[in-house]
Amino acid sequence: MLRVSEIPIKKAKHANKFGKLVLEDGTVFDGTGFGYSTTVFGEAVFNTGMAGYVEALTDPSYSGQILTLTYPLVGNYGVPDISVKDEDGIKQNSESDRIQARGLVVHELSLTASHWSLQMTLDEWLHNEKVPGISGIDTRALTTKLRTKGVMMAALAVSDKEIDENELKKSLASAKKYNDEEFMNVVSTKQPEVYGKEQESIVVVDTGVKNAILRNIRKLGYKVIRVPWNYSIEKILSYNPRGVVLSNGPGDPIKCGDTMKTAKALIDKNIPTLGICLGAQILGLAGGAETYKLKYGHRGQNKSCIDLDTNQVYVTSQNHGYCIDPESLKKTDFKLWFTNADDKTVEGIRHKEKKIIAVQFHPEASPGPFDCMFVFEELKKLIGEENAKK
Amino acid sequence: MYSIPVNPQYVESIIESERPDGLMLGFGGQTALNCGVKLDEIGVLKKYGVKVLGTQIKGIQATEDRQLFKDSMIECHVPVLKSKTVYNFEEAKKVAQDLGYPVIIRVAYTLGGKGGGVAHNEIELHEIVSRGLNASLVGQVLIEEYIGNWKQIEYEVMADYHGNNVIICNMENVLSMRVHTGDNIVVAPSQTLDNHEYQMLRSAALRAAKHVGIVGECNIQFGLDPNSDRYVAIEMNPRLSRSSALASKATGYPIAYMAAKINMGYTLPELVNHITKTTTACFEPSLDYIVCKHPRWDFTKFELANRNLGPTMKSVGEVMGVGRCFEESFQKAIRMLEIGNDGLVANRMPDEKYDIEEIENKLQNPDDKILYHIAAAIKQEISVERIYKLSAVDPWFIEKIKNIVDIEKQLKTPLDLKVLRKAKEIGFSDKQIGRLVGKDDLEIRKIRKEYGIIPVVKRIDTLSAEWPAKTNYLYLTYGGTENDFEIDSKPRKIAVLGAGPYRIGSSVEFDWGTVNMVWGLKANGVDEVSVINCNPETVSTDYDICDRLYFEELTLERILDISDFEKPDGIVTAVGGQTANNLTPKLAKNGIKIIGTSHDDIDRAENRSTFSKVLDDLHIMQPPWQAFSSLPDAKKFAIKVGYPVLVRPSYVLSGAAMKVVWSEEQLKKYLDEATNVSPDYPVVITKFMLNSNEAEVDGVSDGKNVVIGAVVEHIEGAGVHSGDSMMCIPPWSLSTKVTETILDYTKKIATAFNIKGPFNLQFLINQDRVYVIELNIRASRSMPFVSKFVKTNLISLAAQAVLGKTLPSIPPDRWRKTHNFGIKVPQFSFMQLEGADVVLGVEMQSTGEAACFGESFYDALSKGLISVGYSLPKEGTVLITAGGSENKEKLLQTAALLKNLGYKILATEHTAEFLSDKRIGNVEVVYKISEPERKPNIADLLYQRKINFIINVPSTSTLEKYVGMLYDEYQIRRKAVELGIPVLITTELADSFAKTLEWLRSNETTKKSLEPYEII
User: Fold this and answer.
1) Residues B43 and B103 in one domain
2) What confidence category does residue B958 fall into, taking pLDDT thresholds of 50, 70 and 90?
3) Does residue B584 carry a pLDDT above 60?
4) What is the pLDDT at residue A112?
5) In the sheet that B683-687 helps form, which strands lie side by side, from edge to edge?
6) Which residue in A has a C-alpha nearest to residue B162's C-alpha?
């Protein structure tokens, strides 16, 4: 009488290993290793989202970081088929071609996963992508530490054998610091890539772009041309784009000098431009503002931002460690567009005269709420004004 | 504050006198919402220029009316189920045929899914549709495709007047769409949804709320296909609900408070997060734990009730377990229920044995034991896939239950420390572990503490530790290595135990006691007061009423864990009902100081022998009784005093396992059951004195001075449980001499037991002789009622008493000087319990109560009766059926009065004959439901609504109920309940009802506001 069809169920294959997490300040967390057996070093950060680990792990902005999820139960719905692409050739189920975070820290890894879209378990995926994970960690204690002391370097070791703590501490001390790393050549596309066949196009400068940004620009009805982070303005303009998007990405914006040059030119030439996350910081720097590193960043899906034009508050998805200094904004031609409702940090800027807008949060969501999709429409409006002039 | 019925007539009278500017409809459940819609319809709001604050009437209608709801959802691109609203059976039949069976029938404008059901064929359709059409205020039901196997997901939305909106919480129902969310086991946040699904439903919820114009809070429920991302919106509640209370406790976001502010015009961003005190309230809580809500059912109190779970809600309360993994939260929740289980497995009672066929059948038809059945299926090695196919419980949850079963297998002697640690992490109690390894719980406690296996204290902070919390909303878990904070040893600290889940016999009155005790202790100079409780529906679990709130189990193990962390100066167990009271001896034995009456004195009162001895010494009478544990002794005693006898184990709650026994055979059967209930305590037999009155006293004592709250008299005779009986202050039938005796006894007993705190003393009055039947040295169910009546907060006085302060001297007759009447009327929920009978007995069955005050007995009673849902018809027809000549005799005057008042009287053959003999003319004979061919038949008259109320008094109600109930009488009562027709089942109630009708002919009820407590 009751028809219930089957759901794929899979069991963990690469769990129950030795695992150890060591922080720069000497704190040691013992846990159970899963995924790939290796040792990695990176900046320990935490994200407070309660779902969306596939999207988060493939977000290039997590390059160089060891990601802690504060939600304690992870891996419940496994991992879908990551290779599936949409009609434009953009991957449908992930934000980039691979796991970008260096390692994953969770309280509990679900040893069985089930979901209609399931292809493999989380540990299997991490194993395939050569990424280590650790479970059994008091992630709340870890989060509290990062909140009070600030983000710091960490070593995550997963092994089939007992792990030597002192060895690990020593290698952590000599590991390259997050702040000293160069990410752009790792995360950016090497060659321009084109999605769609429309006449009108938007160029996306790839400083580690998430696929959701590409997908959302496609939804606006434009062809997307994704170019390397250091593409010159001339090369960009040779595509005759209607607009430009400066994407999200990892690390300190100050290290993206070439992109900053492009940004300056975009402002000068008044090309309709949208900056997202790192892209926003780069536009800020190009406009004469300054950026700084937050103590423990903003990473989560519940961040409230106030649209100062309308006084509306939006719940946004965020993932950033740096941001624009609001004081420094005053000496530029940018005005504040969005501000963080909690700590009053800069969440969006709008050029006073030019068709340049930027948001610190992630309007493309993925993971997170869809409430700010309208930001893409804002870009379209700017392009519309430009077209109307012509 | 007005203690009057929430219906349009009464509310209008208040609007008329108070002339409020605004009216909030979203805070009083479905009752308030319905009342508000009605007030709008009849033009009251317009007439007095009252503005509805928050969601407007149009928005309420767009969610309450099925068709309007569907249309609205389609307009904002939220898919809904295929369905059609119908107004009669013929239409229903056609729609069901078009959709294909099974179909679900939903009823518009009723409480808690009342009257709905799933029909698999036309016969079932007929029954459910007829019942539903009658239950609906607007006479409409919805026939809909049935998606019982889909996931059931809920979202709680907050929205302001300015277009800001957020999701506070989403929740997943473990038992799929098959079971009403009120009866479902629910987790927050959702566990089996990926980001896409979570956000898809989130956006749909916000779209829907915006479209219908929600301002404040609403709950929206979705069905989600487990095999694709297809979803549908099922329903929306534009008000605070059970779900929103749960969401508040699950997240730490005070939804009702914020909704009230929003209703008044604040925007969400203007409001501040109450936990961090610095961040905005316009955000979405992030949880770093999982909560598990478990309903509490009380089916055992209703002999014929069907235990199956489905679209109609049957639970009477709920608990919420908080942990860092599902297994921990879930096993905690089971213990919190206080149904005698220590977790999912390894309970005191051995698991029931089922064969494969039985268990598969049980998986398909969930009842209150469904997750135990899943565990049983796992033990029978039925695969997770198969269990899923049968039960529609997501494999993820089944796997977690399997983890519990697996660890149960590994727990054996010698105890492996790793297994012990794992067992604690997945929520095993020391009792469960002890049982499996042959040790007692305290030995396990000792072992694990030696090895450092102790729980840590974590905060619920809405932000997963991203911001520092300024409040102490806490839970304990084995899923962590560090406490969030440490306790300062200097301040004077007292912990107060709450009452656990609402259930029959323990409800909001104990929550009132807990909260008032906390305030009282603070007012009397205690530095820090913490509360331990686990009921998400209460005020005592609001983190801001005390210094530290432990949302935790009320078990010895957990209270000792908290004591180890907190090191309190003592614990108050006197305000948490029987739950807290039962813990007193165990806590005292483990070195915890009991604040208030000493545990030795409590023990002297609880132990029937010592209690009796004290009464004998004081020359106070009690009905003959004896404690025993062997059947031959019991039989001998029963024969000596004569049947009927009242049988009960020690330490009982609300008549649980208490029974009136009429024969030797019954006594034997009952003893077997009773020994299952509580093997640690002997069973007591008391002579059941027929034809007696009951009275009780609520009071407070400091050991020397005794403050009498009031003497309260029951309106029904002894035998009806005190919680089910209507009560009246002042006593309506007792002589002054009897009352004086009661006051005298009270003072003597309170001092004899050195009571320091609240107490309740119950008396039985037979032929003007006063017998003591029970002493409870704790806050009672009637204490808030008495406190409000006498304008003296008894718990505030109790707080002074437990701290050893001297009570102010108050004249023992102070309660008599308030020249009015207070009546407490029980509220029953028989309708929800398919099959349950309305006949009352010594087992308490009511699920709530109303207290009304007035200038006369009938003034108060009219309001009380209306409040709990009786209609008081000015004219019409009454059906009288009474069993036994004694009852018939007793009803004679009532019948005569009704006749005089012009009511038409129908009666069954024997009753009619009797009434005619006694010269009550024009009694029309009607025929039993079991003889449908004989007309006029009661069944037809009921369905045609030709009967306005029923007096149905079974021949000795208890005898009939327990020896073998007459099917026919049951049918009358059951049908009447289903059709919402008042049934009066005792002669006292019938008499009061008739006199109330008479009183209303020439009087109007008063509408005075409640007066504040007087400062003493």
Assistant:
1) no
2) very low
3) yes
4) 96
5) B625-628, B683-687, B645-649, B659-661
6) A312
B85-94, B101-110, B220-229, B393-402: which range is least confident on average? B101-110
ipTM entry: 0.97
Residues B49 and B90 in one domain: no
If asked whether residues B134 and B49 sit together in one domain, one would say no
What range does the domain containing B46 cover?
8-53
| B6-15 per-position pLDDT tens digit | 999 999 999 9
Which residue on chain A is closest to B479 by alpha carbon? A138
- The residues in A 264-303 lying below 8 A from B, measured between CB atoms, are 296, 300-303
Q: What was the pLDDT predicted at A28?
A: 98
Answer yes or no: A198 catalytic.
no
Catalytic residue among A277, A305, A323, A372: A277
Is B652's pLDDT higher than 60?
no
Q: Are B33 and B93 within one domain?
A: no
Is B893 inside any structural domain? yes
A362 belongs to the catalytic site: yes
Would you tell me which CATH number, out of the four given (2.170.190.11, 3.40.50.720, 3.40.50.880, 3.30.450.40), belongs to the domain A184-389? 3.40.50.880
| Confidence at residue B110, expressed as pLDDT on a 0 to 100 scale | 56
Looking at beta carbons, which residues of chain A come within 8 Å of B285? Answer: 302
Q: What average pLDDT does this structure show over B691-714?
A: 94
Q: Does A4 sit within 8 Å of B388, measured CB to CB?
A: yes
Backbone angles phi, psi at A226, to 5 degrees: -100, 120
Q: In degrees to the nearest 10, what's the CA dihedral of B401, B404, B406, B410?
A: -170
Window 371-400 of B, Cβ < 8 Å to A = 384-385, 388-390, 392, 394-396, 399
CB B628 within 8 A of CB B833: no
pLDDT average, residue stretch A363-390: 90
Query: Would you call A95 a catalytic residue per the annotation?
Result: no
Contact of A51 with chain B, judged by CB distance below 8 Å, is answered with yes
- Distance between CA B854 and CA B271 in Å, rounded? 41
Residue after which a domain boundary falls, among B406, B438, B453: B406
Bridge partners for B141 per DSSP: B86, B107
Residue B29 and residue B87 in one domain: no
Residue B728, pLDDT above cutoff 70 = yes
From chain A, pick out residues whose CB is under 8 angstroms from the CB of B202.
Answer: 369-370
B295 to chain A, closest Cα gap in Å? 23
Has residue B940 got a pLDDT over 70? yes
Nearest to A313 among B203, B269, B399 (CB): B269
Q: What is the pTM of this model?
A: 0.93
B137 and B47 share a domain? Answer: no
* Domain assignments of chain A as residue spans, ordered by start: 9-180, 184-389
Between A191 and B931, whose confidence is greater? A191
pLDDT in tens, B481-517: 999 999 999 999 999 999 999 988 888 999 999 999 9
CA of B152 vs chain A CAs: smallest distance (Å) = 15
Residues B847-861 have a mean pLDDT of: 91
Total domains present in chain B: 4
Residue B523 forms part of a structural domain: no
Confidence at residue A278, expressed as pLDDT on a 0 to 100 scale? 98
B483 touches chain A (CB under 8 A): no
Pick from A213, A158, A218: nearest CA to A365 = A213
Mutation for testing the B interface, residue in A4, A149, A314 having most B CBs under 10 Å: A4
Instruction: Examine residue B993 and state whether it is found in any structural domain, yes or no.
Output: yes
The secondary element (H helix, E strand) that includes residue B790 is helix B783-790
Assess if residue B825 is contained within a domain.
Answer: no
For the cut 60, the answer to whether the pLDDT of residue A3 exceeds it is: no
| Residue of A95, A124, A347, A364 with catalytic role | A364
B43 and B86 belong to one structural domain:
no
The CATH code of the domain that includes B387 is: 1.10.1030.10
Residue A49: list chain B partners with CB under 8 A: 286
Please name the CATH architecture into which domain A9-180 falls.
3-Layer(bba) Sandwich (3.50)
